[in-house]
Amino acid sequence: MSGEVLINLTPMETRVAVVENGVLQEAFIERSRRRGIVGNIYKGKVVRVLPGMQAAFVDIGLERAAFIHVNEVVAPNVSIDEHTTISHLLQEGQPLVVQVTKDPIASKGARLTTHLSVPSRYLVYMPDSPHTGVSQRIEDEGERERLKTLIEASQTAMQDEAPGGVIIRTAAEGVGQEELATDMHFLLRLWRKVDERRHSATPPALLYDDLPLFIRTLRDVLRADIERVRIDSRENYAKLKEFAKEFMPDVESCIEYYPGERPLFDLYSVEDEIQKALGRKVQLKSGGYLVIDQTEAMTTIDVNTGGYVGHRNLEETIFKTNLEAATAIARQLRLRNLGGIIIIDFIDMEELEHQRQVLRVLEKALERDHAKNKLTGVTELGLVQVTRKRTRESLEQTLCEPCLTCQGRGTLKTPETVCYEIFREILREERAYSPETYMVLASQGVVDRLLDEESTAVADLEAFIGKTIRFQVEAHYSQEQYDIVLM
Fold it and tell me: Membrane-crossing residues (predicted)?
């Protein structure tokens, strides 16, 4: 499997696409006015303590105060009992050093933790934790032990400088002592600078700003199967090469500047794929399709056979559709960056072995996801539940806004419904004011309905109230908007 990373930079935004075998797998978009802040470390000030929620709000200099729960204040190895309350730990006006774990999303402020960490290519340094761990994605026990031995040797050699703990990242698989020691020295230098700032800064203040998206991608997204990184900005190409030379020399040769006249994202139809990812319906190659609905509480995914009729029998048709859907769903979760609770309604399968195989395919496909996720079995209702860690806005939340006409509901009242609302409103006004004439202001579709299909009803209403009803089209009105003017 071959992969490429495409980086498109403009003064307004940075866009990154991860492509495998010519198919878009992930998209990251960061705009200059709304840059992501996950990973940033701030010195904030507690502005409100909420004992009833076991949480507090902290001012870190953003438009909205950020949120921190008691679990993120207490040390990770300390158990919380009924006597441990947020009021014992935090007081209003108290300065607090925190790290952002989740970007502000919609009306919700950023989520915070006091469990600080700073990442590099191979390691994550945790200054306040003695724990040393290895990424769960490194499955070989021999390799896990080798890496732990190497990092513990480095920590012993730098005991005075490195009192905290370390997590060994997936990218460290196969690397040697020298690379790990270099990463460790970099993290210690970085942390010393942050530590100096946190003692001298006045809240609210930014202590540590994570790398910009195009460099962060090189650190966090690059995997062994990525063969090439293309970037269409000459200036930032030089910065990317410089970063790789210092911290990731093994990937420096993979970085290319793309000077072509054809836009970089057009090479693999990335623009078209992003547009498709904003729609509800996802077409499968077999003829089946997915319907994806994102709500505030959860995301639901419905699998349908569509035009796929199979070749043998119904159970086999359903099984093959579900297998294809499982792989497609994992890709859509990454591409759309869907987080939180995800409910998947596969087509009902009678054979238990088919259910197990579909779950195995889905689980295998989810293993490639950079975000932490958890998969449950099939429920009594035939549903599959997935939880996926949400740290930033979904693709839809980044690129779209609620419809001004339907207020994000996705549906509108029919012209017939609006017409009957107008009739009821006229009767209400007649009882209260009894004017000479009624002028109805509405959209073109509603006025057309009133003059055509509802013309008999309008005549009956005029006869009933003994008044004239006139109509006027207001082009800027939505289908649900109307006004009744008394004349």
Answer: none
* Pair 132, 148: CB distance under 8 Å: yes
Helices (H), 222-276: 234-247, 270-276
Any bridge partners for residue 41, and if so which?
Answer: 99, 208
Largest CA distance in the chain: 97
> Quick check: pTM over 0.70?
yes
309: tokens are: 């009729």
Cα separation of 109 and 67, whole Å?
6
Residue 236: strand, helix, or coil: helix
> Cβ atoms within 10 A of the Cβ of 456, count?
8
Question: CA–CA distance from 383 to each of 303, 333, 428 (Å)?
Answer: 11, 17, 48
Pick from 291, 289, 388: which is nearest to 338 by CA? Answer: 388
For residues 222 and 171, the answer to whether their CB atoms sit within 8 Å is: yes
> Under DSSP, is residue 187 helix (H, G, I), strand (E, B) or coil?
helix
Q: Where are the beta strands (DSSP E) in 350-415?
A: 373-378, 384-388
pLDDT in tens, 281-338: 999 988 899 999 998 889 999 999 887 666 677 888 889 999 999 999 999 999 999 9
